[in-house]
Amino acid sequence: MLNNLLTSLGMRKSGLLLFLLIVIPSFNLKPFAIQVVSIIGFVLSWIMGDFLAKQSKYILTACSTLSFALVYSEFGTFQGLDAAVALLTLIALVQSIKINSIKDFTMFVVICELLFLGQLLNEYSLWYGAYIFLVSLFLFYLLARFYKIEKSTVAQGNSERKNLIIKVFYYSVPLTIFLFIVFPRLPLGNLFSLKKKPAGVTGFTSSLRPGEIAKVVQDDSTYFRAKMPEGKIAFPQLYWRGGVLTKNLGFSWDKGKIRKAKDYRTKKSVDFEYTINMSTLESAPLFHLKGTRRFKDTSPGHRIPEAGGIVFFHPYANHKGRYSGEYAGLADEWLIAKDEARYLELDSNISSKIIDFAKRFNTDDPGKTYQNILNHFRTSKFSYTLKPGEQNLETFLFENKKGFCEHFASAAAILLRANGVPSRIIIGFHGGLYNPSGGYFQVRGQDAHAWLEYWNGSSWKRGDPTNVVAPERINFGSEGFLLRSQIPAGMQLKDFMGIRKNAFLRRAFFLADSLYNQLNQKFLEYDSRAQRELFKLSNLRRYSRVILLSICLLTLLVFFYFWSLKLKGDIDPVDKAYAKFLKKLEKAGILRGISEGSLSLEKRLPSSWPSFRDSAEILSLYREIKYAEKEHKIDLFLTKTRRFQPAKIDK
């Protein structure tokens, strides 16, 4: 069925089908202009490919030039992985128009393979790996299908193509596994990208606008998985810090310019270690618990320390972020005296009404001032909601009184600053979905959170007004808050969450995610460090020289094997099948004369012989293929010769 489809499509359209399978998974990531031109180019090549191929070569040259110009206008450079992938996409379409021979088709496939490789470096999942395997099978099939199809004497049938593909995979899989173990994933640095992508989470850049995190929590995508010893820290204390915002812009906040504190109060002992495995290849902060003394075992990449204990991480092009944190509990940073004024600055648009209102909470103790603000949120009918609507600070405090975490944290920080208490906004995540099968917290977009820290005179203290207006969000996580409307009457939230956690489908989900995570770590994240651990466990380190020598010998054997095949030359499958047919005739009692042709041999066949008709048909097909160039009968000829079982001739 597939062979008939490809035959009807021809080389060009079959190649375009391959191109479509390659670009679809990441097509939405390309710039809009590239998407539009790609769609137009695909349609033109599919419908008018034959016509365009007959036009002047200067038209195709102009198309290639315009492709370069478009990519440069979109990216401002030809360097970088994204620009290269976009350029290969357009060049592949131009090449598809030129497909008139197997040479053109082979060049097109090479470009598609490079395009596939470029997109692979931007993807990082087991599902995409399975997709690559299936598309690779199709690619091999296309090459086998059209290989030298222009020459009738070398064309191949379905069975020969299938055998070729099976042999390729049969011999390549063991070698692939060996090379995978011996040659781990190498850190590519910025080889394919001069500029790393920003963090892929809205709200975790250098600013915060009211309503941004409320949008992020609607996304249940996993951003990272955190594993730590069980029972070392209570769930309500799982605040994953990702950004510190110090510049007030009314109800919004920016990063501001704050010096990185150099002095830390830490204790020498470590309470426990936790590990973080990011789920994307994008640059992002090293999300961590407050009290983390230092990071270690960081995956290949570039770290940039920032103020507030934040470390921004740029992973190498083909590595996800992975790191461990040492939690010491008392780790903290000092407030630099020169920066104290910056932690007190308020936007000029903050009205005198708000400043006067803030004074009612003032005390000599920053902690008590903060508690007074919390009491106001608690007793003044404030509510926690995902859809508070657009509002400014005054509307939130005096009229609407509805908001999400960023509204309450921002308002509290402003009221503290108005009372002379240094404060800042922290953005990150809180909690996470605990997976008992894997022993880790799965932190998703819906766990995004904002809170504040204020200076109490000796240390930075965490403050979270959400714990007052929506304690279920902090005590039971984002699910506890989002599912509260589904709780049956008379049932406590704690009991409802326990039943949900132990449900069969829930446990199946935990098991599946745990297996997926393990495969990701053992397979997709296999690098030089994982190799050292594997060699250490298997006691292979002492045999490193032997392994290296074995690799060299294996390489030489593979080289000489393919060289010997080259010396033998290509074997025509039609001639090969015909030779086997003659051997079957010989066993049946019919010998072919030296230099005897197929027509002469057919005339000598006894008409009374039970296998006469089959033998005559095969000999006739052979002549049609060899001399009448009827290539479409190759499959029939190969099938007939394979099934031919002649009866013996009585002597």
Write the layout of secondary structure elements.
Blueprint: H1 2-23, H2 32-53, H3 57-75, H4 81-97, H5 102-120, H6 126-146, H7 158-182, E1 207-208, H8 212-216, E2 222-227, E3 239-245, E4 247-249, E5 252-254, E6 264-265, E7 272-278, E8 284-285, E9 288-289, E10 292-296, E11 301-305, E12 311-315, E13 322-327, E14 332-333, H9 352-358, H10 366-379, E15 383-384, H11 393-400, E16 402-403, H12 405-418, E17 423-430, E18 433-435, E19 440-444, E20 448-455, E21 460-463, H13 466-469, H14 471-482, H15 493-501, H16 504-524, H17 528-537, H18 544-568, H19 573-588, H20 598-604, H21 612-627, H22 634-643
Parallel strand pairs: 15-16
Antiparallel strand pairs: 1-5, 2-7, 2-19, 3-9, 3-17, 4-5, 6-14, 7-13, 8-12, 10-13, 11-12, 17-20, 18-19, 20-21
Mind explaining what this structure looks like?
With 651 residues, this protein is of the alpha+beta class. The protein starts with a helix and ends in an 8-residue tail after the last helix.
Briefly, what is this?
By secondary structure, the chain is α+β, with helices and mostly antiparallel strands. 50% of the residues lie in helices and 14% in strands. The longest helix has 25 residues, at 158-182.
Distance between the termini: 45 Å
Class by helix and strand content?
A: alpha+beta
Radius of gyration: 34 Å
CATH architecture of the domain at 207-263 and 339-469: Roll
State the share of residues found in helices, binned by percent. 40-55%
User: Which ranges are low-confidence, i.e. pLDDT below 50, for 5 or more consecutive residues?
Assistant: 148-156, 188-203
